[in-house]
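Exam revision sheet. Question 4 asks you to relate a sequence to its structure. Input first:
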Amino acid sequence: MHSLIDSSEKIIKYLNIIHKNYRRKVTAEIGCGEFKDFTVQQISVMMEVGIEPGITLNELSKKVKLANSTVSGIVDRLEKKNAIVKIRPENNKRVLSITLSEEMEKKMKEVKEIKNRYTVQILSRFEEKEIEEILNSLEKLAIEIEKD
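Answer key, structure tokens:
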């Protein structure tokens, strides 16, 4: 039987492999299209903003695991490219919320389709029972991680 440390190391290793390869594959496909003028970090920021419209700069920095100053620069460049819109609420000028521009929102739907196509391609190699087991295990792991 594996020790918890061995299991932990394997889980981290496999999640890193999955994340790295998934992001590489999806980013490569995105980069071939209308997103070729965007950096990987810019695409990552736009993906997070697409998931959570109205996100603040601080929250976004945490999600993409980059310093506030770095994300601020990325957001400024994306605003110049008309990819995102910065909003300062009238009642609190210190808060900056970020949303995708209308045009970028449409493009990000393409990104979602690319991600789904790739995921379906991979999942098609598994039996239905295996997919259910993977989903159940990932769900349990996600629930426990979110508790912290």
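Marking note for examiners. DSSP finds six helices and three strands in the chain.
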